[in-house]
Amino acid sequence: MSPITNLTGHLLQAHIFTARSLELAEILNQIVVAAKFVSHKTNRAGLTDILGDAGKTNVQQEEVQKLDEYAHDVFVRLLKQSPYVKAVGSEEEPEMIVFNEVYHDQAQYIVHLDPLDGSSNIDVNVSVGTNFVIFHKQSLGQKLLKSDYLQPGKNAVCAGYVVYGSSTMLVYSTGKGVHGFTLDPNIGEFLLSHENMTLPEKSEIYSLNESYQPKWDKNFADFVAKMKTNQDISGKPKTARYIGSLVADFHRNLLKGGIFLYPADKKHPNGKLRLLYEGIPLAFLIKAAGGYASDGKRDVLKIVPADLHQRIPFFVGNRPDVELVEQLLGNKH
Predict the structure, then answer these.
(1) Which of 202, 266, 269, 301 lies 20 to 30 Å (CA to CA) from residue 312?
(2) Residue 148 sits in a domain of what CATH number?
(3) Residue 65 dihedral angles phi and psi, to the nearest 5°
(4) CA-CA distance, 286 to 103, in Å (whole number)?
(5) How far apart are alpha carbons 333 and 318 in whole angstroms?
(6) Given 3-state DSSP classes, what are the helix, strand and coil percentages for the chain, each rounded to the nearest 5?
(7) What Cα–Cα distance (Å) separates residue 162 from each residue in 16, 60, 180, 190?
(8) Does 30 share its domain with 165?
(9) Per-residue pLDDT reduced to its tens digit, 194-232
């Protein structure tokens, strides 16, 4: 019989029961439990009153979906139960959520997350997801400083995502490979299904919202046009695949090879995706899988966030594709 490995066991085996691995295992366990709750609600979305908007907007002035609120609440409540988590940054909150209870006095970790990416797709039965990244506190003492939660991605100790689709799958990395675990609903456990995931060398897919083409920079528009022809870097046309849920698009490209593109445009000159909640988690994972993520000028993992909800242009996937974007945009340093 093949071995059965769950997430906690895999993490501890990979890090040989160090103090850091035990702490991360406990934090990831809270994330796993929250993901099970969200997976259950997502699968029952058509049967319960959690579809549609909640009648208010978040800090990005976007309509908050009912399932967004539910996912945010579940993840924050469960992470608060960990004595190792000092604070949580969520796409749904304007400020950091700091835990000041006595049992958090020695907590040394900060978690940033997008509780439910692509939630507007729920009512049309399209895959959605959760992104997360974990940092270790840099300052000494109990007080949380801005420099603790505004760290560049290269400082992350763990990142991952959960995709809620035909099956629920959690993908994570501590920088030592990228590993996928699929939820077995019969036993309620995430089991190792994809070990040491790496990007295929062939990059055959491009993913972006082409309806924004009138707002694109001309050089970028020319680049996209070339991807559809034999002038592409691969020597043959790429295939367009775009779901509209970032986690789902990223997950497909991770497995099949390709590039996801979300450029700046006339309406969003600084880009639209969030550095901390979307850019850094996926940049951390793609690096561990052999790929690269850029904002069109530099490695996303080297960007020091200026604020919690900073936005960036985002290009992620096979390294030659992403580096070509940098070169064609004239921004390669």
Answers:
(1) 202
(2) 3.30.540.10
(3) -85, 155
(4) 35
(5) 19
(6) 35, 25, 40
(7) 25, 22, 9, 11
(8) yes
(9) 999 999 999 999 999 999 999 998 889 999 999 999 999
